[in-house]
Structure formats: structure tokens, C-alpha cells
Amino acid sequence: MKYRVIRNFADIQDGYHVYNVGDDFPRIGTTVSESRIQQLATGNNMSGIPAIEAVEEKDMGSEAVEVVEEKPKRGRKPKN
Questions:
Q1: Is residue 45 within 8 Å of 25, Cβ to Cβ?
Q2: What's the rounded Cα separation, in Å, for the pair 2 and 16?
Q3: Hey, CA dihedral for 40, 17, 33, 59, is it positive or negative?
Q4: Which residue from 14, 44, 46, 67 lies 20 to 30 Å from 75 (Cα-Cα)?
Q5: For the chain, where are the alpha helices, taking DSSP H only?
């Protein structure tokens, strides 16, 4: 599951790393316990306000990709 920051905060369990609204949580290269995610996703934290929300991950394999072939331009053939 992926999470997105909905309220700016400094994570005391990550060396006071600052997360801004719209950032992914956790940042790349860090691991976070499920209990920490629950604290931040609910009001069960120091601020009493949720700071992150779950976001759906899109399955890139199921998305259709439209391929458009470019038609050759009509025109006169060059004279030899």
C-alpha cells in the first residue's frame, strides 16, 4: 500500500525529516512499521490529526495503451 502526505509534519521517528503535502510516505530508503502508519493515518499521534492517507496503486500492466501509426504524407514523389 502507498501513502500520501495530507498535512505537513516532521517525522520524529525519521530524524525529524520534513514531509510536505503531496509527498509519498515513507520516503525512499526508509521502512516504517505498520503501527507507525496507523498513528499517522489516524488521529492517534502527537498532533491528534491524520497526516497521511492511503492511495491506490495503479496496475500498469492492466492499462491499455493506444498505438497510433502515423500515415505517410501524400505528396509528389521526387523526380529522378
A1: no
A2: 21
A3: positive
A4: 67
A5: 34-41
With 0-12 / 13-18 / 19 or more C-beta atoms within 10 angstroms meaning exposed / middle / buried, residue 37 is middle
Give the sign of the dihedral formed by CA 18, CA 21, CA 27, CA 31: positive
DSSP state of 52: E
Confidence at residue 3, expressed as pLDDT on a 0 to 100 scale: 97
pTM (predicted TM-score): 0.68
Tell me, rounded to whole angstroms, the distance of Cα 7 from its chain centroid.
15
Q: Is 17 exposed, middle or buried (0-12, 13-18, 19+ CB in 10 A)?
A: middle
